[in-house]
Amino acid sequence: MTAISSPPPVPLRVLDLRIGARRRFREGVVRTAITAAAATSILISTLIVVSLVGNAIAFLRDVEPGALLADGWFPRRDMFSIPTIVAGTLVVSAVAMVIATPLGLGAAIYLSEYASSRSRKILKPILEVLAAIPSVVLGYFALTVISTQVVGRINPDVSIFNLAAAGIAVGILITPLIASVAEDALHAVPNALREASYGLGARRLATSLRVVVPAAVSGIVAALILGMSRAIGETMIVAIAAGATGGSLFTLNPFDPGMTMTAAMTSLATGSDQVRGATLAFPSLFFVGLLLFGVTLVLNFISEAFVRRVRERY
Hints:
By secondary structure, this protein is mainly alpha-helical. 71% of the residues lie in helices and 2% in strands.
């Protein structure tokens, strides 16, 4: 009986490992397109910042320093009180975070730790769809429902235009954002940590709050800072519900009408505060825009630094 011997393997050559010319061309086209997309986004951002800086410097060169610390924000009267619009922005953002933090984190913990797999697949997309509600809709909801039925019951003497109603509506707006990002962070925690906690006799609530949440704290904080940045940058809701379209006095009272940085820019850009004749009113728009850009940039840097510091690798 004759044994059949297999042919000896052919050794690989360097030429066999080379990528074909057509494949190299396709990869080169893809690399060029991706690089162009990234460069275009950076170029657009740079041009926006340059335009803001140039006009902001021109505004600061012509404005009286005392006008920046006036009693209120009234561009038509050459009163550009920065504390007024910064305080309005902080009040609205603080009210929004008071509303959105417990709701968003509660929803995230439920979806990650308590909901079944089937419920999570149904509820998570619904939650993300809620983030797509147009802010103009929430603005009128704040004006007609929140201001009259919620804020009005707390303080019957409040005006229909107030910072509290705008803050609550902004909180509703950013709740899905916080919940979605925080839920992703909680869901990424390895199951080995949960199983170890259950093995030691811990209940689900203790495991969720003392094991999973601390392990995902970097993602949770990033979600909160992202929500804060979104609240600071929200425009339409505060323009509709906060009032003070033509100007505002300095206030920290959430039941008063107030002006935020984005609402001030909207008023100037649309001309609703009738700035004709006020030479510095329109240039102040760029200064406020640069200030808003700086605030959100600082928040992003703080978020990135905090996440890198407390991030845990498994």
